């Protein structure tokens, strides 16, 4: 067993995911207030509880401590199904442990396995001042597809990179 395989196995035993519910939504709100520079609407919180996004909206735990969130929504554009990554964040003391990479991989695998509807692509916005986040996503196969100059309305800089990645359906279906 390689050290990479060993570290992934160790991480997978320490990182767990919980579906979002009314009971843990307060934890999600608190994490979001710490992780992100914007306040999310009630509509955002009601949409991340919808049953159809259960595979794509998770509370992230490390050794049973809530340390992050990942939330996506399903979208259809021109009869093609996409997954939009709304938020993904891990508390600062828990970064660089592989939690973000592991969490993103879980979502990408869920998207690849999703057949009704089949998801063809995942995309997200990253504030143009956040080079570290852009680099993180590029390391995971995302490519810049454009810049939305006025994406953020209440924070500066207002521009955001649009990053996207194709989703290959799981083999062996």
Explained architecture:
This protein has 173 residues and is of the alpha+beta class. The protein is built from five helices and seven strands, in the order H-E-H-H-E-E-E-H-E-H-E-E. It has helices spanning 3-14, 25-35, 42-47, 99-113, 131-139; strands spanning 15-19, 57-62, 65-77, 80-90, 121-127, 143-148, 160-166. Strand 2 (57-62) and strand 3 form a beta hairpin. The longest helix is centred in the middle third of the chain and has 15 residues, at 99-113. The model is unreliable at 1-6 (pLDDT under 50).
Features of this protein?
173 residues, alpha+beta, seven-stranded mixed sheet, 32% strand
As laid out across the biggest beta sheet, the strand order is: 1-2-3-4-5-7-6
Major β-sheet, in short? 7 strands, mixed
Uncertain residue ranges: 1-6
Helix-strand topology string = HEHHEEEHEHEE
Cα-atom Rg, whole angstroms? 16 Å
Helix-residue proportion? 25-40%
Number of helices: 5
Strand tally is: 7
Net shape: globular
Whole-number mean pLDDT: 90
In short:
Helices cover 31% and strands 32% of the residues. It is built from five helices and seven strands, in the order αβααβββαβαββ.
What is the topology?
Elements: H1 3-14, E1 15-19, H2 25-35, H3 42-47, E2 57-62, E3 65-77, E4 80-90, H4 99-113, E5 121-127, H5 131-139, E6 143-148, E7 160-166
